[in-house]
UniProtKB/TrEMBL annotation:
Comp. bias regions, Basic residues: 751-762, 826-841
Highest taxon, organism lineage: Eukaryota
Species for this entry: Bagarius yarrelli
Skewed-composition ranges (Basic and acidic residues): 734-744, 780-792, 812-825
Residue ranges of every copy of the OBG-type G domain listed in the record: 405-484
One Pfam family per UniProt: NOGCT
Protein name: Nucleolar GTP-binding protein 1
Length: 841
């Protein structure tokens, strides 16, 4: 979904409920009833009040307590040796394990207080560590099953997960929590609210997301030295440029001081943007139409799930340029927190949503951000940390065979080592115009003199002592240590980029350096990987020298004598003076003589094409073998439906067409096709005039009919009774003389159709007994009886049409139709039993 449409979804708090899904998921995971069920009536207000204990003045006390916990844990862990006057040694530990160990214990002590019978003296330190480690291990095992429990998998199918959850629940049960010392106000309020249920859910919320966030923040910072330097300078300004060792013993920073760490907060937000995989899920409470914008709406049904994926916004290149790249100062602008982000020239309201959005945002987000800041402050200031991913890095290193023929490329950064390996092998090493593009070893393979060679590209080595080189620079030395020492020699000095400046163009002092190398017998070759000048010379020289050196080394070894004893080189001697020339068969000699005769060669089509050029046309019928050679180029008849098309073609058709066109042109010039209206006689003119009147009368009738706007059914003209007076009137309007109508045909037909029986004289006091036309005409139509006027008649007809709609809608279904209802549909009832098996799913 477009991030610009998020506000339309988030503001629908009543129709799109967040708590229904979260309560059901929490119930399935932690094993207690949903908060908003009958077990917990009217708890919403109390729960919201408990969340206030994570904000304001209560948050200040939590921040102070969290910093003290972090100081105590780090002092008792690996800083104690430094305080005793000994130099701290480097310790290697998994970055995630370190964050998990420190943050779990610090968060546990800050929120829940100290467990019973565990104090802070030195004698109880080991017992405290063991108890917390056991609790942490159980929580890790339970947290690993968390996705499966959310998915609805029964806990009984997940091995020991149920027993582990039971052990953790016993630790955080209200009866056990009563013996803990110094719990936070938030946890105490939660215990009072839920009474008989444990607070494992709160522990999961506190550390389940904080530990991964700490890991990613620290990882991204350590991967970016500039970010570490900027954040450390900002932290030192906050502490007043004091000695880092005194930070553990001084007063903790206040909330206001932590809020001033803008670059640190930006680094945290950037890590959350890249690593957060949160999902905002809401359940539709009733059927309604969700209006996302004036042009776009979505109709949703009750029970549907509407999910927002913040990750699609966090990785949108229109909002965040280079979204996959970590930029620690992305949320800083002009020394202040940046809050203006745009997409399609529109400001986005919800651009950063690791804690959710709207009224359902995580209530503990302020505490989470501040504890991340505290952890990073004390870790970056008190510890020298480096990323050492040895196992992962070695698994990514290419396979190097130490026994095969190897060319090793060593030198300063950005001198063309990667460009050289790309030229001589198929290795596709990244080449960039800045130093330290190559941070690892790369291997390419090539063939020379039918032998397989491997070329190793190493990171650049700076001009400082071996002890001061970093891990990347030491990889070149490490590669040499794993290869045979003979690979170091012979040595070839390659002066690359000769297209920019040659050795002869250098100063005398620099030329002397190469002269000294040549005097020592070390070859110097000028190359350019851009123009490929000297590249093949270096390859040939290096391979030849190494081959000679390998042969010499093997010849000086002990195994060479065993090999030479098994080899015998035969050297034949001359037996006599008899000549023994090579034997050549006579047939071969004859063929050779035939080939030497200058016989004319046959011209091929290829030769003809080369001679004629554009005038050449391919003749496919030239070499046809026919009895009559004159028939080679005869046209093949084209047959269509059994007829030869050539029989129907007139060879003079174009000539005849030209004659016809000329004749037609002469006819037009003579005026043969000109219309002569004056030649019409009087009768024809009258007919045309009458036709014109008929057309005008027809148009007039159409207009009169439209003005009447008759909505009722119309009787067809053929069904109407023809009135004699109307007929005579219409004929007179059309111009027909109706004066002598008595002798006309229609009058005679009317007389014949009339009854010849003498009608009885009608008397006023006696009603006619026969059903004649006059009697039926005197009655009022049934559909008009009881109707007051025309207005009421129109309303009655409208009501009649409305009552007919239902019957018309279900016109194919009648009351007498038989319908058998399926009261137990198979697909809804089969396979729904809790236990046992069934034959259909």
């Amino acid at each position: 979904m477009n991030p610009l449409l998020y506000p339309a979804v988030i503001k629908q708090g009543k129709q799109l409920d967040f708590h229904e899904f979260s309560d059901s998921a929490a119930s399935a995971t932690f094993g207690f009833p949903a908060v908003r069920s009958e077990k917990f009536p009217s708890l919403s207000e109390q729960i919201q009040k408990s969340f206030l204990l994570l904000q304001g003045s209560s948050l200040n006390s939590l921040i102070h307590k969290m910093m003290k916990s972090l100081q105590l844990i780090l002092q008792q862990d690996f800083l104690s040796s430094h305080e005793a006057g000994r130099d701290c040694e480097w310790r290697q530990e998994g970055l995630y394990e370190f964050c998990e160990r420190v943050m779990f214990e610090a968060t546990l002590v800050t929120l829940y207080g100290r467990p019973p019978n565990i104090n802070t003296d030195v004698g109880a330190n080991m017992h405290r560590k063991s108890w917390i480690n056991t609790l942490r291990d159980n929580f890790k095992k339970f947290d690993a099953m968390f996705p499966l429990l959310i998915a609805g998998i029964p806990i009984s199918l997940l091995g020991r997960t149920k027993s582990i959850r039971k052990q953790i629940n016993q630790v955080f049960h209200p009866q056990s929590m009563a013996e803990w010392t110094s719990p936070s106000g938030f946890i105490q309020a939660r215990v009072d609210i839920f009474q008989q249920y444990d607070t494992l859910k709160d522990l999961d919320k506190a550390v389940g997301n904080t530990i991964p966030a700490c890991f990613w923040c620290l990882y991204h910072l350590l991967s970016n030295p500039q970010a570490v330097s900027t954040v450390q300078e900002e932290i030192m300004r906050m502490f007043g440029d004091k000695d880092p060792e005194s930070i553990l013993n001084q007063d903790t920073p206040t909330r206001e001081q932590l809020e001033k760490l803008i670059h640190l907060e930006s680094a945290i937000n950037e890590s959350l943007r890249l690593s957060s995989v949160s999902m905002n899920i809401r359940v539709v409470q009733k059927d309604f139409c969700l209006h996302l914008n004036p042009q776009y709406s979505v109709c949703v049904r009750k029970g549907d799930i509407v999910a927002l994926y913040p990750q699609s916004t966090h990785l949108d290149p229109d909002i965040y340029p280079n979204p996959q790249q970590y930029q620690f100062d992305r949320f800083v602008e002009n020394g202040m927190v940046k809050t203006n982000f745009f997409k399609a020239n529109q400001k986005i309201r919800y651009y950063h949503m690791p804690f959710g959005s709207g009224a359902t945002m995580c209530p503990g987000r302020f505490f989470a951000i501040n504890e991340l800041k505290q952890f990073l402050c004390i870790t970056l200031m008190m510890c020298d940390m480096e990323l050492v991913a040895v196992r992962q890095h070695l698994s990514r290193l290419p396979t190097i065979d130490p026994n095969t023929r190897t060319l090793l490329l060593c030198g300063y950064p950005n001198v063309g080592k990667s460009s050289f390996i790309n030229k001589v092998t198929r290795a596709d090493v990244d080449v960039q115009p800045y130093a330290f593009t190559t941070k690892s070893l790369f291997v390419g393979h090539m063939d020379y003199k039918y032998l397989r060679w491997q070329v190793v590209d190493t990171p650049g080595i700076l001009d400082h002592p071996l002890e001061e080189r970093n891990t990347i620079e030491m990889q070149a030395i490490t590669a040499l240590a794993h290869l045979r020492a003979a690979v170091l020699y012979p040595l070839i000095v390659v002066a690359n980029k000769c297209d920019v400046k040659k050795i002869s163009e250098l100063s005398e002092e620099n030329q002397k350096i190469f002269a000294d190398l040549l005097s020592e017998g070390i070859p110097v070759i000028e190359t350019s990987t851009l123009t490929e000048e000297g590249v093949m010379q270096v390859k040939t020289e290096a391979c030849d020298r190494l081959l000679v050196h390998r042969v010499d080394t093997k010849m000086k070894g002990k195994k060479v004598h065993d090999i030479l004893n098994r080899l015998h080189l035969a050297m034949p001697t001359k037996r006599d003076d008899k000549e023994r020339p090579a034997f050549i068969p006579e047939g071969a000699v004859l063929r050779r003589k035939t080939m030497e005769v200058d016989a004319p060669k046959r011209k091929l089509e290829k030769d003809l094409e080369m001679e004629l050029g554009d005038d050449y046309t391919l003749d496919l019928q030239k070499y046809w073998d026919l009895m009559n050679a004159d028939e080679k180029h005869d046209k093949i008849p084209e047959i269509w439906e059994g007829h030869n098309i050539a029989d129907y073609i007139d060879p003079e058709i174009m000539k005849r067409l030209a004659e016809l066109e000329k004749e037609e042109e002469l006819r037009e010039q003579a005026g043969e096709y000109d219309s002569n209206e004056e030649s019409e006689d009087e009768e024809m003119q009258e007919i045309r005039h009458l036709a014109k009147q008929i057309r005008e009368k027809k148009k007039l009738k159409i207009l009169e009919s439209r003005e009447k706007d008759v909505q009722g059914p119309r009787m067809p003209r053929t069904a109407k009774k023809v009135d004699r007076a109307v007929l005579e009137k219409e004929m007179q309007e059309l111009g027909l003389d109706m004066t002598e109508k008595d002798g006309s045909h229609y009058v005679q037909q009317a007389r014949r159709s009339r009854s010849l029986v003498q009608k009885r004289k009608r008397e006023a006091s006696v009603l006619p007994t026969s059903r004649t036309r006059s009697q039926s005409a005197s009655k009022q139509p049934r559909d008009q009886s009881g109707v007051r006027d025309a207005k009421m008649m129109k309303k009655v007809k409208t009501m009649m049409k409305s009552s007919q709609k239902g019957m018309n809608r279900q016109g194919r279904k009648g009351e007498s139709d038989r319908h058998v209802f399926d009261l137990k549909p198979k697909h809804l009832l089969a396979g729904k039993r809790k236990s046992g098996s069934t034959s259909r799913r």
